Automatic annotation (TrEMBL):
Lineage: Bacteria, Bacillati, Actinomycetota, Actinomycetes, Kitasatosporales
Protein name per its UniProtKB record: Pentalenene oxygenase
InterPro entries linked to this entry: Cyt_P450, Cyt_P450_CS, Cyt_P450_E_grp-I, Cyt_P450_sf, Cytochrome_P450_monoxygenase
Pfam family, one: p450
Highest taxon of the lineage: Bacteria
Originating organism: Actinacidiphila yanglinensis
Keywords for the protein's UniProt record, in alphabetical order: Heme, Iron, Metal-binding, Monooxygenase, Oxidoreductase
Length: 444
């Protein structure tokens, strides 16, 4: 399937059978950043499919907001839904609309106070055993922390450390394998050790979700958590979420609550380590506002610089770095004719690093947010856009701000490894980030 109309510039690296997949696999971020040179809508081949990449913010915004022309359909989403279920992150527009109406009340602003209190408690508990001079992998530590927050806000429960590490290990294999399977559909049918590891990881992940739901208390037993709100929620026709729908939503919330927020926090600390001036200012803000305690909801409006650090981190390293839509009718996009079934990729990572929309785009500069968001629609998309924009945007930004301010007020986190390698899976994560802990006393 291809596009007619105007000719597409030829993107180098198109190999027999796999197309551009090897370039995307070996250097995904560099490959994406190279694509705007080939037009506002570039055309690449991933395995058997020609895929269009929206390289201009306005084109990307059009794809994400016009559900009548572009939806979450097609063979790639079929593959993703087999693994992740049909939750908010994967459902087609009409089903997504019903699910969102059911789930929206659980994410109302008035519930944020209770959620942030859980975040504050989890930060204190997770760092209670940290010791001066200790070395740890911050990527693992933050995943344990944010997964703890997700479980406590969702189920009023927790996993022990071993269970959390097993869950992360399974997610590592699952998320990496899912990316390959989405691009090269035949790869999952081969009887390779990698495929067996993927199958075991997926089974572990799905079994963990089922166990958590099965172990949840009876509805109406007094829990003030997301799960109790989801169980009580009804759509316009008075229908509750089915058991399968509930399982799918829990899987997405656990993944988003654990993997994406932890990645954002680690990337923020990585970026701050390269800007001692900004790090000193963030610490001074934490000292003035928190005085060594963990942050709470009332502190968030005063943690202005920390909030800007989070926004700038999400610009440079958006966890959801790639998203896909499929044309549901013959249409025109970016001056090109697209046939029904054409797949269009939107990459917030690509769009966030365009110099013509973000001055000195590669530079970590939180104060650019003093002027507010970019004027061009689609130039900043860490949570998506339109009707399918992430329902947990306020939750996620609050959590990252709480964790970052609380950690930096109490600890110096000195990187001890070499350059950070990026794991560009379903979520854009730092593969590992070893740091040495030094306890600090708040100034003032």
């Amino acid at each position: 399937m291809g596009g007619g109309g105007m000719e597409f510039a030829r993107v180098p690296g198109n190999r027999p059978v796999v197309g551009h997949f090897l370039r995307l696999r070996r250097d995904p971020l560099g490959f994406l950043e190279s694509l705007p040179a080939y037009g506002d809508l570039a055309r690449v081949r991933l395995g058997p499919w020609w895929v269009f990449v929206a390289c201009h913010p306005e084109v990307a915004h059009e794809v994400l907001t016009d559900f009548r022309r572009f939806d979450r359909t097609g063979p790639v989403y079929d593959k993703v839904r087999q693994a992740m279920g049909a939750g908010l992150a994967t459902a087609g527009y009409h089903e997504h609309r019903r699910q969102r109406l059911v789930m929206q009340p659980a994410f109302r602003h008035e519930h944020l106070r209770g959620y942030v209190e859980v975040m504050r408690e989890q930060v204190s508990a997770a760092t209670a055993a940290w010791q001066d001079g200790q070395e740890l992998d911050l990527t693992e530590a933050m995943f344990e922390l944010t997964t703890g927050v997700a479980l406590a806000t969702l189920f009023s429960s927790r996993l022990d450390m071993q269970e959390t590490r097993e869950l992360r290990s399974a997610l590592d294999v699952f998320l990496s394998g899912l990316t390959s399977r989405a691009a090269l559909p035949g790869i999952g049918r081969l009887p390779t050790p990698g495929n067996r590891r993927y199958a075991r990881a997926l089974a572990h992940w799905q079994a963990q979700v089922r166990r958590l739901i099965a172990g949840y208390g009876e509805p109406g037993t007094g829990q003030d958590d997301l799960m109790s709100r989801l169980l009580a929620a009804r759509d316009e026709d008075g229908r509750a979420l089915s058991h399968q729908e509930l399982s799918d939503q829990v899987a997405v919330l656990l993944l988003a609550g654990g993997e994406t927020t932890s990645s954002a926090v680690v990337w923020a600390i990585h970026l701050l380590s390269g800007r001692p001036d900004v790090l000193a200012a963030v610490r001074a803000e934490a000292d003035a506002v928190l005085g060594g305690r963990a942050a709470g909801l009332a502190d968030l409006p005063r943690l202005e610089l920390t909030g800007r650090v989070v926004k700038e981190t999400l610009r440079l390293y958006p966890p959801g770095w790639l998203t896909l839509r499929t044309a549901t009718r013959d249409t025109t996009l970016g001056g090109h004719q697209l046939a029904t079934g054409s797949m269009v990729l939107v990459s917030p990572y690509l769009l966030h690093r365009r110099e013509d929309f973000h001055q000195d785009a590669a530079r970590f500069e939180p104060d650019r947010w003093l002027e507010g968001p970019p004027a061009t629609r689609g130039a900043y998309l860490p949570f998506g856009a339109g009707a399918t924009k992430c329902i947990g945007e306020e939750f996620g930004e609050a959590e990252a701000t709480v964790i970052l301010a609380s950690l930096l007020g109490r600890w110096e986190l000195t990187p001890t490894g070499g350059p950070v390698t990026c794991s560009a899976r379903l979520v854009l994560s730092p593969a590992s980030f070893p740091v040495r802990l030094t306890a600090r006393t708040p100034s003032g």
